[in-house]
Amino acid sequence: MMACKECSANPVFSLVNRSFCRKHYIEYYESKVLRTIRNYHLLGKEENIAVAISGGKDSTTTLYILNQIAKQNPKIKIFGILIDEGIAGYRDKTLKDAQKFCKKHKIKLYVYSFKKEFGKTLDELSKFGYPCSICGVFRRMLLNQKARELKATKLATGHNLDDECQSVIMNQIKVNWQRSATLGPITGIISDKKFITRIKPLYLVSDKETAAYAFLMKFPVMHTECPYIHDSFRHDVRNALNDLEEKHPGSKNGIINSFLEILPDLKRKYSGGKLNYCKYCSDPCQEDVCKSCELVKKYKLKFPYCK
Amino acid sequence: MHIEGERYINLGIDKRVMDIFIEKENRKMKLKVKQIKADELLKKLKVNPSTVLVVKNGSLVTESAILKDSDKVRILNVVSGG
């Protein structure tokens, strides 16, 4: 058993060529996240950050680390936004974890639900179509609109190395470079005052690294996954990448590092595209109608923004 | 062979039993083994190490940790997204 590289204590986490005790693992993890924030200029001098939280390990960790930064810098303010999609037996539990965490750390939490906003839960909507597509569109749109209403300067999400790797590969398979151009530690290719810039402080840490950090920090998070994930393309890509990583350690890092090299070119290539405004909700989009209004109309849902 | 409704694995190493809880599947198992390395256990259970954490008696351990028959082992899923 390889001892901690720094102090020879019993290890709790191993990378390919080094091991860490609890104390040094926490230091390693936090400095990696802080380095990402610094190197990619995720935070300005004055910010009002909305953190999209789900109660899972990634968003809870993102909220915790940004809150630590905010405590030391009075010009940086943070609050949480949670979208309750209405997934029985899953979101109801993670919602309680998020509320408990925010209460403990005195962080303001705003909760919005699909049921209240659209009149139906995701469990009910899943009868109409593919749940991950519906959820992704509505969640993204609600987060942007609510963050904007709450006067957020940026929207931080818990997306990590694994999530980004999966998105890169999925877009490659679907030959969708334009969508890949919107990825990266700080998102967006076309600036518009209606788009809240998204930042991903956990961009360079893996699922496993964050799960270990959340466990060691005793965050109240469940180590279970969304019941709908098994139906998704992402699930298959994720399994393939995990198999690849196991046989060839460092594969995920390699994919992301290669992607980061071409990302500036992709952003340049797709930054000149014309932006339309949805004829129903006037949010920026690529077509005449945004994806969420398209679904609202298609499934005859109610939505106050969609006139 | 089942013990009290829980799955039982016989590795043919020893008669003693280790308690294992696999959180992702919400499944408890008893493993007949004197001691085993965490990575060998994951291999036996056909679990990819990059998708889980191994917790021994409440403490996080690496895949090279030795697990003994008296240990309570939890295997936590690292993927929580969706």
Keywords:
heterodimer; A: 307 residues; alpha/beta; Rossmann fold; 5-stranded parallel beta sheet; two-stranded antiparallel sheet; 12 helices; 48% helix; B: 82 residues; mainly beta; Ubiquitin-like (UB roll); 1 helix
Describe the structure.
The complex is a heterodimer of chains A (307) and B (82). Chain A is of the alpha/beta class and 307 residues long. Chain A folds into two domains: 18-271, HUPs (Rossmann fold, 3-Layer(aba) Sandwich), CATH 3.40.50.620; 274-307, no CATH class. Chain A has helices at 22-39, 57-72, 91-104, 114-118, 122-125, 131-149, 161-173, 177-181, 207-216, 233-247, 251-270, 291-298, and strands spanning 13-14, 19-20, 47-52, 76-84, 109-113, 154-156, 197-199, 276-277, 284-285. In chain A, the strands form three sheets. In chain A, strands 5-4-3-6-7 form a five-stranded parallel β-sheet, sandwiched between helices. The longest helix of chain A is centred in the last third of the chain and has 20 residues, at 251-270. Chain B has one domain (2-77): Roll (Ubiquitin-like (UB roll)), CATH 3.10.20. Helices cover 9% and strands 48% of the residues of chain B. In chain B, the strands form two sheets. Chain B has a seven-stranded mixed β-sheet, with no helix packed on it. Chain B has a two-stranded antiparallel ribbon with strand order 5-8. In chain B, a hairpin with a 2-residue loop joins β6 (52-56) and β7 (59-61). The model of chain B is unreliable at 1-8 (pLDDT under 50).
List the helices and strands and how they pair.
The complex is a heterodimer of chains A (307) and B (82).
Chain A: E1 13-14, E2 19-20, H1 22-39, E3 47-52, H2 57-72, E4 76-84, H3 91-104, E5 109-113, H4 114-118, H5 122-125, H6 131-149, E6 154-156, H7 161-173, H8 177-181, E7 197-199, H9 207-216, H10 233-247, H11 251-270, E8 276-277, E9 284-285, H12 291-298
Parallel strand pairs in A: 3-4, 3-6, 4-5, 6-7
Antiparallel strand pairs in A: 1-2, 8-9
Helix pairs in contact in A: 1-9, 2-9, 7-10, 7-11
Chain B: E1 2-3, E2 6-10, E3 17-22, E4 27-32, E5 35-37, H1 38-44, E6 52-56, E7 59-61, E8 66-68, E9 72-77
Parallel strand pairs in B: 2-4, 3-9
Antiparallel strand pairs in B: 1-2, 3-4, 5-8, 6-7, 6-9
